[in-house]
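Worked Example 4.2. Consider the chain below.
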Amino acid sequence: MKQQLELLCRIQTIDTNIFRSEELKRKYAAELQALEEELKRTEELYHAEQERQKQSEKELLRRERELAEARDLKKRTEEKIMAVKTNKEYQAGLHEIEMIKQQIKEKEDAIIDSMDACEAAKAALQKAADALAAAKAQCNEKKHRLQKELDAYLAEIEQQKKQREALVKEVAVDLLANYTRLLKVKNGRALALAENEQCTGCSMKIPPQIYNEVVLGESIKTCPNCNRILYVAYTSDNEAQRQSA
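Applying the procedure from the previous section yields the following structure tokens:
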């Protein structure tokens, strides 16, 4: 029976690795999603800066157009007052020109502000573009590394699965059936190490009689609390205990 337990321990080790491979796949998927989401946020920031630059350029063009219109109005008003016949009309024309000049000054100042805004938007866009390029490179590097690690682990798992196929053929049918059932209901851990009269699967104390029988290894014993199949890691002490029984 000890040999059967040893076979189950080897199978459990493989099954634990298989279980971890599924966890690794889920972890890879989660990390990949996080990378994609982070990249998406960086892309959104870049597109926002693109739109900001576009709007600042549109605003600059609008103000330049308004300035051109104001200058054209000043020119037409200056030509108009040359044809007036009364001093009153002339003075009114001069007043209108002064007002237009003030508007032109304000529009020129506004254009300077817009040019500064365009430069700032251009610099912000370049910064966002650099951040996006770096994020893409980092994302691709991490994806490649994670996939490489996953592929290597899964390749090893495939080899272990082949070893498992050979091992299960040597286990008694009823024992294998019980092991398989426990594997499903105990979250991938059907066996538990019994150590110092304690089950490491559930941390509960094992009755001395059962623990002694586990040490002897002459029959399959389960934990009274969690029902996992118990086994011991043989030391010089419990091996002597087994042989003297």
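The chain has five helices and three strands. The beta strands are 191-195, 198-199, 229-231. Compare this with Example 4.1 before moving on.
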